[in-house]
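Tutorial, part two.
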Amino acid sequence: MSSRIEQLIDELEEYIESCKPKFMSNSEIIVNKDEIDELLRELRMRTPEEIKRYQKIISNKDAILNDARSKAQALIDEATVHTNELISEHEIMQQAYSQANGIVATAARQAQEILDKATMEANELRMQASLYTEDRLTELDSIISAAIQSTNSDYERLAGSLGQYRDLIQSNLRALHPAENLDIHLDDPEDDDKLDVL
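Running the prediction step on this input gives:
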């Protein structure tokens, strides 16, 4: 079952695919700012929830270790009870000591194996949760970076076009009054009055 973050990323990709291309462009599209803002807003809200969910998985490590310790203690307690029963029988005292030591050693070994396995499983869960969270955040960073780059490119093209129109207007104004405006500079605010007179 996919997470809500994955679903939102899919929705963002589907939305981008469904956008109309910009006039006379194969690589640019027209997006609805409100729609993409809403998807990004929900993605920002959901990201901490996903991280909390994986932190909860990591916190289960303690429960796994506690369960392992309980099982290990139960094995040791059982071994101790059995040892005491063997020792209580005087005629087989030496045999009881030998068996008891073997049982305690086996119980301790099994307990250590349980603890080692539980620790490995908990570490694996934590690593998987961290990798998943890193992947989702990297995807989100790529989407936002692409959106920023596209927006900056559009603003630069707009500024360039406005600059060309301004140059053309200045050229036309100079052409209308070639003799009078030799000393007029359109960039100088003091020359605006001169242009009004012209």
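The two ends are 73 Å apart (CA to CA). In part three we will examine how such features are distributed along the chain.
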